[in-house]
Design brief:
- The chain is α+β, with helices and mostly antiparallel strands.
- The chain has one domain.
- Helix content is about 50%, strand content about 20%.
- It has a four-stranded mixed beta sheet, covered by helices on one side. A two-stranded antiparallel ribbon has the order 2-6.
Length: about 160
């Protein structure tokens, strides 16, 4: 038996904030990496006998992250809703650091780029830990999957 995992991910086009080409590239890489390697076990669905792989659809509705988890046949298995209030600062900081990083790679020294990249990883790691905490008791996942999911949360449009 294979480990529970995401085999397909979809972002709600109505809530995506198309930032720029660099952020769009981050989104594509995060989706590719997530599909290639992830650990994702939605506990209610798993306990009900659905052991994956899963399709995941992410959207933002009324300032909350909505995670629709379906089977490969498209049958909705469960929906997880997480408030995004605790993530707003991390998302804002992540975008600001990403903007600085992308500007720096065009004209800064290697040391300056490394410093900015370390800050970017720090914000990303902190937000991934926060996401793991918020998913506790709902979805079992690993740190790498949480990091990639945070990247995708960042590219969704947060209304309000």
């Amino acid at each position: 038996m294979t480990a529970p995992r995401i085999s397909h991910i979809e972002l709600d086009d109505a809530t995506i904030l198309w930032r720029n080409a660099d952020i769009e590239q981050e989104r594509r890489i995060a989706i590719f990496d997530l599909i290639e390697e992830n650990s994702f076990k939605p506990l209610r669905a798993f306990e009900a006998g659905f052991h994956g792989p899963y399709h995941l659809r992410l959207s933002v509705q009324d300032g909350r992250l909505v995670m629709d988890v379906s089977g490969e046949d498209g049958q909705l298995l469960e929906t997880q809703i997480l408030g995004l209030g605790r993530f707003r600062r991390s998302i804002r900081d992540y975008f600001a650091i990403c903007d600085s990083y992308y500007q720096a790679i065009r004209k800064a020294t290697a040391q300056e780029i490394e410093t900015i990249d370390m800050a970017r990883r720090g914000v990303h790691n902190t937000a991934a830990e926060m996401l793991l905490e918020r998913l506790e008791g709902k979805v079992e996942t690993d740190f790498a999957t949480a990091r990639r999911l945070f990247t995708l949360i960042c590219v969704l449009h947060i209304k309000g």
